[in-house]
Automatic annotation (TrEMBL):
It comes from Fodinibius sediminis. InterPro entries: Cyt_c_oxase-like_su1_dom, Cyt_c_oxase-like_su1_sf, Cyt_C_Oxase_1, Cyt_c_Oxase_su1_BS. Keywords: Electron transport, Heme, Iron, Membrane, Metal-binding, Respiratory chain, Transmembrane, Transmembrane helix, Transport. GO terms for molecular function: cytochrome-c oxidase activity; heme binding. It is found in: Membrane. Its main location: membrane. GO terms for cellular component: membrane. Belongs to the heme-copper respiratory oxidase family. The chain crosses the membrane at residues 42-61, 73-94, 106-124, 144-167, 179-203, 215-236, 256-279. Residues 1-318 form the Cytochrome oxidase subunit I profile domain. This is Cytochrome C and Quinol oxidase polypeptide I. Pfam families: COX1. PROSITE patterns: COX1 (PS50855), COX1_CUB (PS00077).
Amino acid sequence: MQILATPVLAITLALVAMERILGIGIFDPALGGDPVLYQHFFWFYSHPAVYIMIVPGFGIVSEIVTTFSKKHIFGYWAIALSSLAIAFISFLLWGHHMFVSGQAPLASVIFSFLTFLVGVPTGIKMFNWAATMYKGSIDLKSPLFYVFGFFFLFLVGGLTGIVLGTIPLNVHLYDTYYVVAHFHFTMVGGMLMAFLGGLHYWWPKMTGKMFNEMQAKIASIIIFIGFNVTFLPQFAMGMLGMPRRYYNYIEEFRGFHQLSTIGAYVLGIGLFLVMYYLIKSLFSGERAPANPWKSRGLEWQISSPAPPHNFEHIPVVVHGPYDYHKPMDGFQLGLSKWGDGQSKETAGIER
Ligand SMILES: [Cu+2]
């Protein structure tokens, strides 16, 4: 997605430079250019750009959900193929940012339909994650707290995306705080929550230190509350007509804005708490065991932090990374079957 989308932004900047420096009319109507063309270029890059940030988050969520449900991921192929479908469809959606830019009505209808279509693979993922947790042996650890935050916030972000993809609603909501709220629910819900979940999940593996689990859970709840207090009022404000990118507003919106401001401070406190206990863990945290979450993933079978060359010898893998239905002993036995009779110690495997 980065290879296909990001160069378009670079090309657009090059075209702007050519227009400014050489006076070639590309976007400026005074020079015979088309300003809407700029929007096409911009959104052809910027819609996939959002997905570039979210899709890795989907991968993190899949890892965390299986580890803390102790269950094989439900619908492995559906999860994998839906990622590819989301990546592919993301290149066909840019026009949903331009319903009010004077594009052809037929184009708007097609872009609207394709926008609804991307909800299908995204929905497949959500249901597969829910099915993975169903009847799982749920281990309520801090990375899973962030994934729960992801489920709720990203769901709201996705559903309000369907609202914005609906042409008549979009005409009313375009350039209002509704869009600001929707965008933050997808970005913070989709990317930041998954990032924080992944940061907590792999922190012991990266640093070799355990953070304070209780503080991590409290911080995740503060962040979740702070985020909702900040951005939920913006949906209401946007529907009532508060435009985005304005410093001033009429008296009617004061309450919403003040609530948002309070929420932003709560959100900030939560994020500073994360910074505090993570940095503290580096100095005074307990030593992390090789596999603190009892995961089946290959990276958890080496010591924490990961040794410079990960595996001294190529491990023999006899089970998949999500095979929680197979006994743990057999799994470790499989990994310790080294081709050339190396001991488990040199391979960094801890029992
Ligand atoms: Cu978009």
